[in-house]
Amino acid sequence: MAHSVTVGQYIFTPAAAYSSPDASGTLHGDGAQVELRVTESLLSEFLMLLDAAQEELGRRWNGQVFSGCHVPRT
Predict the structure, then answer these.
(1) Which residues lie below 8 Å from residue 37, measured CB to CB, with a gap of 6+?
(2) DSSP labels for 6-44?
(3) What DSSP element (H or E) covers 57?
(4) Sheet of strand 32-36: strand arrangement
(5) Which residues of 14-44 are buried (b: 16+ CB within 10 A; e: fewer)?
């Protein structure tokens, strides 16, 4: 993950790939900014998994619409 991600009212900005090994990403919002020294890899992995789940759900939802299984609300 190389780009900032908005999570509710917060923004997660990962450390740049070319930065020093001890560089860390940040989470900011509500006027506060927190450097993620320990949890950055966990948050990054969680957001990647969440993104993959969202994409899969979108594919399944669209597949259901095209299969005739989904009945649109009137």
Answers:
(1) 24
(2) EETTEEEEPPPTTS-TT--EEEEETTEEEEESSSHHHHH
(3) helix 40-67
(4) 5-7, 10-13, 25-29, 32-36
(5) bbeeeeeeeebbbbeeeeeeeebeeebeebb
3-class secondary structure, 5: strand
pLDDT tens per residue across all 74 residues of the chain:
468 888 788 888 887 776 677 778 888 888 887 777 777 777 878 888 888 898 899 888 887 766 666 556 66
**Which residue type does 40 have?**
E
List, in order, residues 6 or more apart from 70 with CB less than 8 Å away.
Answer: 61, 64
